Amino acid sequence: MSLIIKDLHARVKDGATILNGINLEIPKGEVHAIMGPNGSGKSTLSKVLCGHPDYEVISGSAELDGQDLFAMSVDERSRAGLFLAFQYPVEVPGVTNANFMRAALQARMPKGEELDAVSFYKEMRSKMKSLDMDPRFTARAVNEGFSGGEKKRNDILQMMMLNPSYAILDETDSGLDVDALKIVSEGVNAMRAPFRSFVIITHYKRLLDYIKPDVVHVLYKGKIVRTAGYELVAQIEQQGFDFIKSEE
Questions:
Q1: CA 6 → CA 22, 41, 223, distances in Å?
Q2: Which residue in 5, 47, 122, 233 is a FRET match for 96, CA 20 to 30 A apart?
Q3: Residues whose CB falls within 8 Å of the CB of residue 201, separated by 6 or more in sequence, listed in order
């Protein structure tokens, strides 16, 4: 099973076209990195796939394990196994981390079943420990007053708790110091499995030194213009994206 994107064109709602024919397949069990210069459409792609209301599909298709992704609501996409860690995680004042996660998990349970509170807190604290998060963060409002690194760890915590089939991480490395980068990467690597795929959106090699991708794509001017193995990361590190621009 796969996430399959065919000839996807999309734009900011009532604005400029940003994606100009994306073709991409992410099979289960693989980690794909998407790199590219600023303004190439990387974050737009992640938001379009997850149903952000500020973006609209002009043409093309996307299937998630054989289902029409664009026919689903945002909630249905999440329930089907799609997860997005935002480049800039949002704050949710007045809602604690624990209550936020309990509500999200409860919403995924069959009608009439209740989440076991003891098991929930045990699992959440265990995962927080693996991310070197203070257990007191369970009682803090979601991302409110968090540092950049704390917000990114909180995103990975949410991913661990929700256990998605397809996880899109949009510039998770931005704002992280070396120690936080390593901890977040270890959290992602611990979740690699034959039944789960990752799309890692990043500008930099440093994240991909910790999370080694199976496939690397370069997105430029709204299109995938190059696909290769990890050696492509080293080429980008040495030459920047000038080698892509020079081939136009």
A1: 6, 16, 11
A2: 47
A3: 33, 34, 35, 42, 43, 45, 46, 87, 168, 169, 170, 171
Residues 6+ apart with CB under 8 A from 163: none
CATH topology of domain 2-245: Rossmann fold (3.40.50)
Q: How far is residue 34 CA from its own chain's centroid?
A: 11
Task: Return the structure tokens found at 84.
Answer: 């997005």
CA distance 42 to 17: 13
**Rounded to whole angstroms, how far apart are CA atoms 178 and 207?**
10
Instruction: State pLDDT tens for residues 86-141.
Output: 878 888 999 999 999 999 999 888 888 899 999 999 999 999 999 889 999 999 99
The amino acid at 229: G
- What are the residue boundaries of the structural domains of the chain, listed by start? 2-245
Whether the CB-CB separation of 50 and 84 falls below 8 Å is answered with yes
**End-to-end alpha-carbon separation of the chain, Å?**
34
Paired tokens of 155: 């995103």
